[in-house]
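sry for the spam today, last one i promise. struct tokens for design, 169 residues
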């Protein structure tokens, strides 16, 4: 008659530890691979330049600098703001000329959703968050915007900007 003896408790513990170690190693490998795949989503030099053009245009707007503003926009720029079609002159009038508050300050932050570029055209979608101080009052605004840029010579310029106000407080 054969006697069956149950495995020793130490052996069970060793098997559980071994299983835990294998699962932990697999989890670590998966995390490293996920990080590497995310790292491959880095922006190209062109995409970075396109995004910087948008940021620079808003910096010029925040600084109320119409000369710099024009360097980042095509002469025929179309801006769709608050259900209206604006050109560069309208933007300068409403955002710079009529904005004479001595304490005016605007800071912008961008969350770029998508940036696509070919040789001479780029398309960008992003969230814009701005903190604006004027006449002693601070307000925040959030927009969802799309921009089309074209390459003029070696410089990217904004030809079309569509802005949807999401929230203002």
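last one done:
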């Amino acid at each position: 008659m054969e006697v069956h003896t149950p495995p020793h408790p130490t052996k069970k513990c060793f098997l559980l530890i071994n299983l835990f170690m294998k699962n932990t190693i697999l989890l670590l490998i998966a995390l490293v691979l996920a990080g590497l795949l995310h790292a491959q989503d880095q922006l190209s030099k062109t995409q970075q330049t396109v995004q910087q053009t948008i940021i620079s245009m808003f910096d010029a707007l925040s600084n109320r600098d119409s000369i710099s503003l024009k360097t980042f926009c095509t002469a025929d720029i179309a801006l769709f703001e608050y259900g209206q079609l604006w050109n560069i002159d309208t933007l300068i009038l409403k955002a710079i000329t009529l904005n004479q508050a001595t304490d005016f300050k605007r800071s912008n932050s961008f969350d770029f959703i998508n940036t696509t570029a070919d040789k001479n055209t780029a398309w960008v979608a992003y969230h814009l968050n701005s903190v604006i101080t004027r006449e002693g009052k601070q307000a925040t605004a959030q927009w969802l915007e799309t921009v089309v840029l074209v390459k003029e010579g070696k410089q990217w310029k904004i030809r079309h900007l569509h802005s949807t106000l999401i929230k203002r407080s």
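The chain has two domains: 8-41, 45-168. ok im logging off now
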